[in-house]
Amino acid sequence: MADEEIPRDPRWALPLAAIGVAIVAIFWYWDSPTLLAVGMLSASMFGIFGLMYLGLSYTGPKSRLYGLKPLTTRLPAISQPRGHVHFRTKMFWTILIVLLYFLMTNIYLFGVDQATVIDLFASYRSILAGAQGTLMHLGIGPIVTASIIMQLFVGAKIINLDLTDDEDKGTYQGSQKVLVLVMIFVEAIPQVFGYLTPSASLVTSLGQFSPGNGMLLADTIIVAQLVFGCYLVFLMDEVVSKWGIGSGISLFIAAGVSQQIVQGTLNWLPSAAGPISAGNPPSGTIPKTIWFLTNYNASQMASGGWEQVLLHAPNPVIALLGTAVIFFIVAWTESTRIELPLSHAEARGARGRYPLRLIYASNIPVILMSALLANVSVVTILLWTNPALAHFPLIGHQWWIGSYPASSTAAQLLGVSATTPLTGGAWYLNTPNGLESWFLPLINSQTYGVFLLGHTWWQSLIHVGLFFGVMVGGSILFAKFWIQTTNMGPEAVARQIEASGMQIPGFRREPRVLRRVLERYIPVITVISGATVGALASGADLIGTVGNASGTGVLLMVGIIINLYEAMGREQLMEMNPLLRRFIAGEE
Asked: Which of 49, 232, 256, 532 could be joined to 16 by an S-S link, Cβ 3.0–4.6 Å?
């Protein structure tokens, strides 16, 4: 559908333009801004209301998202390969993108005062595949958030799109790109209001260039870097999806978590500045254990040394063991599957199997659920600490939503980060940080009671139960949405099997018959899949992991590595036997 063919109602333009002008006028009257600030706000209003006009003015018979086509077709994107991409080429692009990811995690944002950075995503770094204060500061957060919103809207029928229709699916994907760009700005702009502070030298220099606009220009430079870095990540994900192996988002998560685990296991440097001592041991599990064994005698180890090695942060042995246990459990669940027998309708004796894995929905549901909790955490932090939002009626600066340390000094005295919730719903939904944060205080409240942050033992148990239940329930919900939006439901799978010329022995070769058979398995396996990954991720968080990788991060890393290994095997198989491409990848 070309731009000139899109039916529109131009009457939407006037009221939307009037609202935009009114907002700029109110800002001018209320804040007495500089001309540059007014110009930047006007440009922002033009973008926001222009996007609204494209959607609202569409008068065609389909979803209003079709009105966004003039924009979606012009966004930077990665072209689809015209034919089969050879295995070596896919490996080249996959490795290149991973190296580029690590490079971006080490390129710090220009003009940011790194000493004053407050990381809003500190508890979810491993899941969002980001790095504090770098081009990867936002990580995959906006991409995953946009995916969550689109899936929820399609699943709730708020957006009228049939994802089995190629045109509707293309509109869905194009609209998701627009929403990704919107979410990048939504998550980037709040960062400069007290969390990514510009350096004084940059503000002064820009103030000399444009008097009165030093801070505004410095904030704009930081936001521009965040937008560039995050959209580059989005394009890198497209490169891997189209020209590489697997998913770029999954690859970034696995790379980041692997790096954290290696550092948490082998790092000889202490976690705090200063010489190595009993109070400031090496931060890696193995170096820490070696240091205590070589510097403590038997009586010292018995009177507290073993407790320090096995249970105390940073990176106790129990966390390394928990990481290993989760690794093997996930590896086992990934290999557990039900196989439906298949036979070819025309070639006698040609048989095969269609595997339905226990983790049928893969690890995507727990990624989406963790990203949702990360966004909830960011909102509660902003409502408590942001000067403007803290005065918002009913929800601004309310302890029952979530309170946080008053300063970095107060956080250090409590032994937590500045973004760790202390009370309210944010605390109950916050990820527990290993056994030390909930289990050990139940056994010895005198020694470990400080880790409860002023809460009672029964509140701690409610915290654990609520976190576990939300993770499991949310993962089940997202598993159902994911199956619907990725053509993995009974009807879509039945069409795929029928198109390949295969059928289930003893049943007629009809999609309707195949669908009824698959409906006995796929909905149940979907629920079990979501519950399993949710339980594994939250269970690992409760035990603790090395390198602050989080249980969810370890779960994702193992699942992603196994899926990547299987994908590489399929690619090599198709390389050796091109006839298999039709069934495995749908290629001619």
From this structure: 49
The mean of the pLDDT values for the chain is 86
Packing angle between helix 13-31 and helix 35-56, nearest 10 degrees? Answer: 160
Summarize pLDDT for 37-73 with one digit per residue, the tens.
889 999 999 999 999 999 999 988 888 899 998 898 8
Question: Which residues, listed in sequence order, are joined to residue 357 by a DSSP beta bridge?
Answer: 337
Gap between the Cα atoms of 430 and 226, Å rounded: 26
- Token pair, residue 198, equals 């510009």
Class of domain 85-247: mainly alpha
pTM assigned to the model:
0.80
Residues ≥6 apart with Cβ < 8 Å to 10? 57
State the DSSP code for 78.
Answer: P
Which two tokens mark 428? 């109950």
**How many residues in the chain?**
588
Q: 502-503 and 351-357 as β-strands: parallel, antiparallel, unpaired?
A: unpaired
User: Which of 71, 37, 38 shows the shortest CA–CA distance to 52?
Assistant: 71
**Residue 35 CB burial class (10 angstroms; 0-12, 13-18, ≥19):** exposed
Please tell me the distance from the alpha carbon of residue 562 to that of residue 558, in angstroms, as a whole number: 6
The per-residue pLDDT for 1 is: 47
Determine the 3-state secondary structure of 162 from DSSP.
coil
Show the 3-state SS of 536-567.
HHHHHHHHCCHHHCCHHHHHHHHHHHHHHHHH
Q: Where do the structural domains in the chain lie, given as residue ranges?
A: 1-74, 85-247, 272-313, 319-548
Which whole number is the average pLDDT over 180-197?
Answer: 89
Nearest to 1 by CA among 177, 165, 168, 179: 168
What is the rounded distance in angstroms from the CA atom of residue 562 to the CA atom of residue 328?
11
